[in-house]
Amino acid sequence: MSHYSIKNFEEYFQVYRKSVREPENFWAEIAEEHFLWRKKWDKVLTWDFKKPEIKWFEGAKLNITENCLDRHLLNRGNKTAIIFEPNNPNEEAQHITYRELHKRVCKMANVLKDQGIKKGDRVCVYLPMIPELAITLLACARVGAIHNVVFAGFSSKALSTRINDSNCKMVITSDGSFRGDKSIDLKGIVDEALRECDHVEKVLVVKRTNADVAMVENRDIWLQPLMDEASDNFDAEIMDAEDPLFILYTSGSTGMPKGMVHTIGGYMVYTAYTFKNVFQYKEDDIYWCTADIGWITGHSYIVYGPLANGATTVMFEGVPQYPDFSRFWKTIEKHNITQFYTAPTAIRALAKQNLSFVENVDLSSLKVLGSVGEPINEEAWHWYNDIIGKRKNPIVDTWWQTETGGIMISPLPYVTPTKPTYATLPFLGIQPAIVNDEGVELKNNQVEGRLCIKFPWPGMARTIWNNHQRYKETYFSTYENMYFTGDGALRDEVGYYRITGRVDDVVIVSGHNLGTGPLEDAINEHPAVAESAIVGFPHDIKGNALYGYVTLKETGESRVQDNLRKEINQLISERIGPIGKLDKIQFTTALPKTRSGKIMRRILRKIAENDISNLGDTSTLLNPEVVQQIIDERI
Question: What is the pLDDT of residue 435?
């Protein structure tokens, strides 16, 4: 009997030991007992990190949507699968049952098939956070097409790059999207992108904002009339466990974004099993992840992981500050949310606001709080724990990546004792290693180095689309026979892991390795500071010096700023030591916003080095105008 739901710390250790001693038996039991397969696998695992090649549940046949939808119809048909909370709180929320979702996915699958989409075709999805986004993903999976979701805040250039790299045959978009008090012309962005794309045959358009949009003859089609005419029966395409489910692009430190390829069987098992345990999901819970489905978090923990468990998952169209900063908290109260999963960036922004936004809201339904996207700093952790969790709801500080498919290191709520800023212990089946610069594994506790994974797990990406060599070079060439995460980590005296930031976020000053995360944490403690980012720049004597970009809650005159510089360095001296003092501090109105801290730091590093001729790809920035402003104001 497999341990699908871990109940206590003793059970975690017992099951973890089995999962690393007998990984194939462990994952085979989970897969066999809790999922629907049309044909069982011939072999649980084949792997070789030197090639690299990883195959899980080889020879198995399935369709992931039968696991996410069909198998729930008998006992959960009338249960809410998706709650859609619109951008405007006065617009009525939608509660979509499993039966209704199944019908809409089948209709959409018929639409795709009628428009010429077949198994293996790539479909680009550029939609806001509306139900059609989740429905489109599931419909692609049902017909065997490979979905390629592009976050609907990216530019036309970023969109066309991703469409062309994966050779998409179709784009699915909407007339526009609502974001706070603004509306965005998504269809116009698609039209501009498609000027650079030769292979797109059809564009299906969802009506959301009722904006006037241009429709290109013989290419663009309104979706709703097609849905109205489509049958709500569709026999799911039988897929191989190692067939691709989706491509999702993640930004590389240089050049072209990387199209990570996730395959069906292993991804399904891993996302479902991590969801069940990391959120301790129970049958009547209402789970809300605030991410966008444009990111891996939304794929794994809004769509596939929750639906494979028959959960109720919330899709939120809005932003935390609209119509005011109580929106998250009022939404928790409105829908009786039990698990709430959000990003440290949002937590920090909300923590800066007046407590009156939280005080008059009933958060008593909450059981588990989660954090995702970057390591959470101590100040934000305590605010989240004390103010939102009332010190009774455990925080799961989850570490994982687009490449890993699912959560890798995290506390299990009510199982693992938590520790602020620590992701704590590896998930079942995950074998982390901390290595030094020479690639030697540091096996003791109280060590710090680079984080690698020694053994494959079912949710890992199998390749980079059309570029397996880059996959090998990026993840498997730095250290022999290990997956290199690109992150630094430390392991404390009891074996808990803390992610210290990207390895390229480590600046070596006078021979000392300084992680930018702890420096930023220290600066952000200053009551006048809103946000900060630290980079290194060349220094004749130290090798590198530290350059700080700091945004203030209120801009001050230059005399006040001079005092602030002294106070910030005093804080750093107290928290980190004098070695951490910043040589230059530039006050700026905002920092470049991007989903990848790596890209932001590369741009800021170039500006600090005065090398502004080669800033690289800025197409994925959400506020490119800020870069020019920082250049103009640089010291």
Answer: 97
What's the DSSP call for residue 503? G
pTM: predicted TM-score of the whole model, two decimal places: 0.84
Interacting residues of 258 by C-beta distance below 8 A, sequence separation 6+: 249, 250, 251, 252, 464, 467, 470, 471, 474
Single out the residue of 311, 343, 346 nearest to residue 327, CA to CA.
Answer: 346
What does the pLDDT look like over 542-559, one tens digit per residue? 668 899 999 998 766 666
Q: In the β-sheet with 339-342, what is the strand arrangement from edge to edge?
A: 94-97, 80-85, 312-316, 286-289, 339-342, 368-371, 395-397
Residue 253 is predicted with a pLDDT of 46
Distance in Å from the first CA to the final CA of the chain: 64
Tell me which of 26-30, 47-51, 131-135, 556-560 is least confident. 556-560
Side-by-side strand order, sheet with 497-502 = 432-435, 447-453, 483-491, 497-502
The residue among 283, 260, 359, 366 whose CA lies nearest residue 72 is 283
Between CA 548 and CA 625 the distance in angstroms is 19
b/e map of 353-376 (b: 16 or more CB within 10 Å)? eeeebbeebebeebbbbbbbbebb
Which strand ranges, in their side-by-side order, compose the sheet holding 584-587? 529-539, 543-552, 584-587
| pLDDT score recorded for residue 579 | 74
Q: Is residue 580 a contact partner of residue 546, using CB atoms and an 8 Å limit? A: yes
Q: Cα–Cα distance between 176 and 174 in angstroms, integer? A: 5
Q: Do the beta carbons of residue 347 and residue 163 sit within 8 Å?
A: no
How many whole angstroms separate alpha carbon 265 and alpha carbon 37? Answer: 9
Q: What percent of the chain has pLDDT over 90?
A: 78
The answer to whether residue 268 scores a pLDDT higher than 80 is yes
* Size of the chain, expressed as the number of residues it contains: 635
The radius of gyration computed from the CA coordinates of the chain, to the nearest angstrom, equals 24
